[in-house]
Amino acid sequence: MKKIAILMTALLVLIACTAFYGCDPADTSSTAAESKPVSEAVSEAVSEPDDVSAEESDPAPVIAEPTETVDKSLTRTNIALNCSYTAPENNRADGWDDDGIKLTDGVINETDGGQTTWFGFTGSGINSIVLDLGEEVSGICEFELYIAYGTWGISAPVSVCYYISDDGETWTAITEEILSSDVEPIYSVTDSWSINNYLLSFDSGFTARYIKYDITSDGHVWVDAPSAYIYE
Ligand SMILES: [Ca+2]
User: Fold this and answer.
1) Is the separation of the CB atoms in 226 and 132 below 8 Å?
2) Each residue of 4-43: pLDDT tens digit?
3) Residue 146 Cα, ligand 1 centroid: separation in angstroms?
4) What separation in Å is there between the alpha carbon of 105 and the centre of ligand 1?
5) What count of other Cβ atoms lies within 10 Å of the Cβ of residue 152?
6) Å from CA of 226 to ligand 1 middle
7) What is this structure's pTM?
8) Which of left, alpha, beta for 95 (phi over 0: left; psi -120 to 50: alpha)?
């Protein structure tokens, strides 16, 4: 009687399984065959949105880190002095137009933006000054750009950003945007000129031949002396 009861129970379990699941409990291959694509699909469903969101939410440029050893006890040299450059087009037709040398001639008026030593132009969005150092230079650890504003209807640009390049075509950012609101003036008179040095200083250095100074603005820009320094 006991054996019969066990056999009956087993039979009932088999019937119940077949009725509810339509499968042979001994046949695990169909279960495996069905579960594999599902697990793959889940895996894809999970990974695809991640990949897409990574592409969509990561437009920020890679910012290079300086790696070259610098000894700041040595002499500080402005390697931009007298080097050639390209600048935003002249659009004022007056004494503040660029003459092709005033940005790297070493002459900076640090108290009076009204002097024609400054280069004035009008621009919206990003305008660039690009220095050509003539050859690759190592150990560049300080970058700066002078900007004047505060009177004559000349306002601060939104920000500046610096880039380096070996070929003048492929650029690498070396900083996030430097906001004008974060720069302390080196000279300032209420209701008159504010002179500002957008200085970026590192403890280590970069190698580059070209340096690009992007200025984001909406209106007049008064600029001078895009510079870069090594210690030698
Ligand atoms: Ca100058």
Assistant:
1) no
2) 444 444 444 444 444 444 333 333 343 333 333 333 333 3
3) 9
4) 5
5) 14
6) 9
7) 0.75
8) alpha
